[in-house]
User: What shape does this take?
Amino acid sequence: MLFDDTYKTIVTASEGLFREKGSKFLAYAYPIRSEADIKPLVQELKALHPKARHHCWAMRFSPDRGVYRVQDDGEPSGTAGRPILNAILSADLTNVLIVVVRYFGGTLLGVPGLINAYRTAAADALQQARIIEKTVNDCYEIRFDYLLMNDIMRIMKEEQAEVLGQDFDEACTLRFGIRKSALNGVLAKLQQLHPAVSTKYLSTI
Assistant: This one.
């Protein structure tokens, strides 16, 4: 196989903690399904910790691990969001958001101290998390004649494709997810089945 079609992420939310010179850094790690998940989770923590000085975060998203964002939330540039992201990168995880909530203890930590605190708190949250490996799946939609139903479902079963949704009328529509490395085999079988079977790429999950 010429490409990596697996990735690691966390199963459920987890928490971590780091204390330094009176400051308290509470880390919250979340599995996320889209970038739209970020704002509600951050807002929820701001409501939970209204007296905290900072709510800094980093996220890494997409199966190819190519999307990331960092937010220092008032801390000196590069001292919060980036160290949190580095904890995610060190664990080689994706589809993860980590928010670190800081309660200021009255003593300035300096740039090295902040970097260490945010990174350590984030890493602690990940150490408490259960990590799983997932396959990179492509989602496709196929349209076909009802008479081909049994053959289509047989191919889905043979190729271990996950049926995500279906609409069976005169013209049938089925949405399925398939591991990237098995994609070409499925598409070839569908095309061999009947020229009228049409396939459309939807997304990668």
User: Anything to note?
Assistant: The first strand starts at residue 6 and ends at 10. The radius of gyration is 22 Å. Residues 110-127 form the longest helix (18 residues). The chain has five helices and eleven strands.
